[in-house]
Amino acid sequence: xxxxxxxxxxxxxxxxxxxxxxxxxxxxxxxxxxxxxxxxxxxxxxxxxxxxxxxxxxxxxxxxxxxxxxxxxxxxxxxxxxxxxxxxxxxxxxxxxxxxxxxxxxxxxxxxxxx
Length: 115
Prior knowledge:
The chain is mainly α. The protein has one domain (about 25-115). The protein contains 3 helices and no strands. α1 runs parallel beside α3 (about 70-115) and α2 (about 25-65) runs antiparallel to α3 (about 70-115). The chain starts with a helix and ends with a helix. The model has no long low-confidence stretch (mean pLDDT about 90).
């Protein structure tokens, strides 16, 4: 998905820089709105997954504080959750920022339509 978002940003950026008089900005705007919808869906799915993993990590750590002894399987589970939560958060952060950038491109396209 990150590659697709980068390609989308590059294409829109090139169109905006080129500013050809024959560009149909309405069509570009509609296509961008469609892509934004897809990216928002991806963003919400990753938010749900990231938060689920983060909550499970916190719950597992809390169980270790309550338990008198920590079984090896619980320690491995904590390690697995920590290994998972970091990449999920990094990916979600990147996805969020990329979608925010695309909103700015959309605003620029809408300005072209108004002119």
